[in-house]
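Ticket reopened. Same input as before:
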Amino acid sequence: MATEQEQLLAIRNRIDAIDRQILDLISQRARCAQDVARVKQAFGGAKDAVFYRPEREAQVLRRVMDDNPGPLSSEEVGRLFREIMSACLALERPLRIAFLGPEGTFTQAAAFKHFGHSAITVPLRAIDEVFREVESGVVDYGVVPVENSTEGVVNHTLDMFLLSSLNICGEVQLRIHHHLCGFVDDVKAITRIYSHQQSLAQCREWLDLNLPHVPRVPVASNAEAARIALNEPGSACITGQGAIDIYQLPILAGNIEDQPDNTTRFLIIGQQPIPPSGDDRTTLLVSSYNRPGSLQALLAPLAEHGLTMTRIESRPSRKGMWDYVFFIDFDGHCEEPLVATALSELKQEASLFRILGSYPKGVL
Amino acid sequence: MATEQEQLLAIRNRIDAIDRQILDLISQRARCAQDVARVKQAFGGAKDAVFYRPEREAQVLRRVMDDNPGPLSSEEVGRLFREIMSACLALERPLRIAFLGPEGTFTQAAAFKHFGHSAITVPLRAIDEVFREVESGVVDYGVVPVENSTEGVVNHTLDMFLLSSLNICGEVQLRIHHHLCGFVDDVKAITRIYSHQQSLAQCREWLDLNLPHVPRVPVASNAEAARIALNEPGSACITGQGAIDIYQLPILAGNIEDQPDNTTRFLIIGQQPIPPSGDDRTTLLVSSYNRPGSLQALLAPLAEHGLTMTRIESRPSRKGMWDYVFFIDFDGHCEEPLVATALSELKQEASLFRILGSYPKGVL
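Engineering reply: fixed in the latest deploy. New output:
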């Protein structure tokens, strides 16, 4: 039998051969991206050519994730292909992305998750600045938060759509789960709970119900809370999977966040309408006439045509022309015949009607 | 001749075929990584098996970057392979990395650059906490800054090596260049210069020499400075390539940072010694006997054996046993015969001698 070194060497040689093929294929793929650019320029002229196609990227990601034979997780495979596409796209011109800063926030993480690390990102200080930079064409796209479980709906983002003609071109979701962890035999034995202030707030109801008399101690980060729980007898922490993996903390109670779907959702805003990808979401901005039953009448066509509404938010219109405006999300793309029919019926009942965008559902 | 749509469809079909092959190869590579783990466990037992091999990763990266046929840049190709290796390695167990926090700092960027995004990172509040977590084995590696052009040498990191037995397992460099930009016809026409406080400080000498009487206005970020320069006549900004690409600002003077090698350098610290990768650096911690000419005598063997010293830093020893200790970097690996000979000679002249690590030079 071969020695350990011989066996390892044989595997490493196999890996080297695979790497040569991967390098060759990635380079071929990049040349195809250049061919796409050449065709588009030949027919449309460089100025009009749109190289970034979110619906096409969503399709590629879904296919590789569906076809993934393992052993890598589909999420890892999707992430790798996102980076490969990002690098190929940047050959023409890196995408310029504005996001609600500062650097290091979740919004920047969302921007990289959606566009890959070959994009150039620029942090801006306010949501309206992100809209303005996209409108003026200084950047290609913007990334803004639209819902998060600490602040609820980010109203400022919704309000901007009343003033802006930009489209929604995509969405990104970052999931955040909280777990109660520590080296105690029983939840009842916990004497103190450490966590970041925001995490404590996000688990308030669960704590009030289950551990109402245990002091909650806010600390600088969930990682620090985990380290305290490791060292201080009787203490527990609320933290995420990352710190749990690192500190190998036993989970005493999982997913204790008050919102079961504790997700921060971001929108990609841009100037271009996005063709169907096969699994899309549409966001409407509508207002009903101010008469009894008008909101029900407005929504009826969606239900009648079997379209699944996933969210509705109302906002004061601030325009005087309508009392309230509604932001409605539903599954489907406005170019699909069924959706088009439903929307034309809905439009009859609306005093204000705008399709903010039909865009691929977040894949990763 | 085929229409635009037909031509694009043909290219997209080619890309889809390439993607299927890439997916297959990446999955094969991941299975090889599992084979490596199986062999190591069969021979060494799971507990002792070290799956992360920095010297091997450096070799893989160098080879794909050397072999890169284009059109992607070698840096992009290296980055993609870093992520592929990171994902394959995480199949066994994701690497746990502590870094000097908070989140979103350059040190976190360095951690991801070195370990890829499949690693789990945890921010800690102080350099000694990073050392402690690595020493206790709670995390696999730590990432700490060792030099940056604003603060100079990060003395606290050097001092930690006097107390710690950890090795240097690698290095990461982040290059930072500053350019003076704006829409003015001549540098002499500039009326105000905007930039982040730190960037203004990093270009102070150049500004004192070339534009001594122009007011310097610190703003929240270099991106904001770029936006002001875009809009305010007569103004200029100091910013990096990212903001220049986004705002398409003309460069009035490039690389104006006072330190020509304006690089922040980070060390990877860990428990394991790293075998040679073929292009390595060694860091020594030494002290000379307190007599005339002793430092020269200490350094002589390096020169005599033709080893290139790249850096030397002195620090008060704080131990009473030696007045000063020296941190010396030179090219080569302590297992190479020539280096081993030079070091055995150097050791004769030293009152304190410790090899902090021989490790691959930063590849990306």
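Residues 115 and 172 of chain B are 10 Å apart (CA to CA). The radius of gyration of chain B is 24 Å. Please confirm and we'll close it.
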